[in-house]
Write a structure and sequence with these properties.
- The longest helix is centred in the C-terminal third of the chain and has 16 residues, at 38-53.
- It is elongated, with a radius of gyration of 20 Å.
- The chain has 2 helices and 2 strands.
- Helix content is 40%, strand content 17%.
- It has 65 residues and is an alpha+beta fold.
- The chain has one domain (5-56).
Length: 65
Amino acid sequence: MNINKRYIVDKNGNAKEVVIALKDYKKIEELLGLDLDKEAIKQLQRARRDRESGNKATYVDLSLI
């Protein structure tokens, strides 16, 4: 992934902030899962617990999705 960015520097030339395009920000936000609502996060947490405990009864066949 290529992100075009612009650095904001202080008087000594040290980078203090970064400006990126909104589309790049949205892409990063989605990749990190920061765009998920609380219910989606709860569902993912339940799914993880089910997977880790081997609770295959909760699995959904991919052909049904």
